[in-house]
Amino acid sequence: MQKPFSNGDTKRLIVCDFDGTITEKDNIVDIIRAFAPPECEEIIQSVLQKECSIREGVGRMFAYIPSSLKSEIVQFVLERVKIRPGFHEFVTAIKADPNTSLVIVSGGIDFFVHPVLGDIDVPVYCNHGNFDGKTIQIEWPFACDDQCQNDCGCCKPSVIRSIATGDERIIAIGDSVTDVEMAKRAELVFARDYLLKECETHHWPHEPFKDFHDIVAVLQEKEGISI
């Protein structure tokens, strides 16, 4: 059951996805379709349909791409990426509220996540790209803890457990299959696309959003954040 909306004195930890949430499109899917062989499309669909784990699928797909293409891939992402409207204002508003913390927890890879975020000063938890070999190898510094058996890759529930103090109201923001386990553990979810359908199906407490202006409006009206 959803808890009542909180007042301005409540502590909050906002956990925000990156690909498809902060950005308008999923960068991993775009990278794979542009730089990996066509057979990787089958792996993409297997991940989306939960037929293989996120860690297994992402690792297999990037292993098809030569490490020598790193700079080209970063440039590809930067030329095409679109930040969802209102994100910078959202970050500014959250950082101004003394009772609210924001972290970005992403199934994306550091070599393109950090360039896209630029000088945005927010803690980021994501996977690591290793370019020492002939092909890109993905490393998983935030893998599942002993309470998760889903082989997530970057395990968002595990990250939450590692940083939460226990007295915060957990708020999740996401869009896809990689955000479902995080959403299950949140007291409020801002959701779109696949995650919105999951929230509606399972009756998880949620608010739909199109951009971060929508999120700021709800946080101001219902969460008591002074903006």
TrEMBL record:
Keywords: Amino-acid biosynthesis, Hydrolase, Methionine biosynthesis. It holds the Pfam family HAD. GO terms for biological process: L-methionine salvage from methylthioadenosine; L-serine biosynthetic process. GO terms for molecular function: 2-hydroxy-3-keto-5-methylthiopentenyl-1-phosphate phosphatase activity; L-phosphoserine phosphatase activity; magnesium ion binding. Its EC number is 3.1.3.87. SUPFAM superfamilies: HAD-like. It catalyses: 2-hydroxy-5-methylsulfanyl-3-oxopent-1-enyl phosphate + H2O = 1,2-dihydroxy-5-(methylsulfanyl)pent-1-en-3-one + phosphate. It is an enzyme of class 3 (hydrolase). The keyword Hydrolase applies. GO terms for cellular component: cytoplasm. The keyword Hydrolase applies. Pathway: Amino-acid biosynthesis; L-methionine biosynthesis via salvage pathway; L-methionine from S-methyl-5-thio-alpha-D-ribose 1-phosphate: step 4/6. Dephosphorylates 2-hydroxy-3-keto-5-methylthiopentenyl-1-phosphate (HK-MTPenyl-1-P) yielding 1,2-dihydroxy-3-keto-5-methylthiopentene (DHK-MTPene). NCBIfam families: DKMTPPase-SF, HAD-SF-IB, PRK09552.1. Belongs to the HAD-like hydrolase superfamily. MtnX family. Belongs to the HAD-like hydrolase superfamily. SerB family. PANTHER family: PHOSPHOSERINE PHOSPHATASE (PTHR43344), POLYOL PHOSPHATE PHOSPHATASE PYP1 (PTHR43344:SF21). This is 2-hydroxy-3-keto-5-methylthiopentenyl-1-phosphate phosphatase. It comes from Aureibacillus halotolerans. The gene is mtnX.
